[in-house]
Amino acid sequence: MALFITDECINCDVCEPECPNSAISEGEEIYEIDPNLCTECVGHYDEPQCQQVCPVDCIPHDPEHVENKEQLMEKYERIMAAQA
Fold it and tell me: Is this prediction's pTM over 0.90?
C-alpha cells in the first residue's frame, strides 16, 4: 500500500525530507503523498521513514492504493530506472 497523510497533519515539515522517493510534497493545507511515488520506503529502508518521524502519527496506509511488498519493489525499481 501507499501511505497518505490525514488532516491531522500539523505541517511540521519533518516528513518531506525523509522520503527517499520525493513522494511527499506540500499541499494546499497539509502535506500530501503521491501514491505513484510512495513505496513505503521498500528498496530503501525497512520501515517507512515518514511514519517514523511524524510527531502526530497521521500517516496510515492508504486503503485506496493497496499494494503488496512485491508490487512496491517493482514500483521502486521503475522509479530508480527513471532516475538513471
Answer: yes
Helix/strand/coil (H, E, C) string of the chain? CCECCCCCCCCCCCCHHHCCCCCEEECCCCEEECCCCCCCCCCCCCCCHHHHHCCCCCCCECCCCCCCHHHHHHHHHHHHHHHC
Asked if residues 19 and 53 have their Cβ atoms less than 8 Å apart, the reply is no
d(CA 41, CA 73): 9
Query: Residue 48: is its pLDDT beyond 90?
Result: yes
Q: Tell me the residue type at 58.
A: C
Q: Apex CA 47: angle with CA 44 and CA 39, to 5°? A: 55
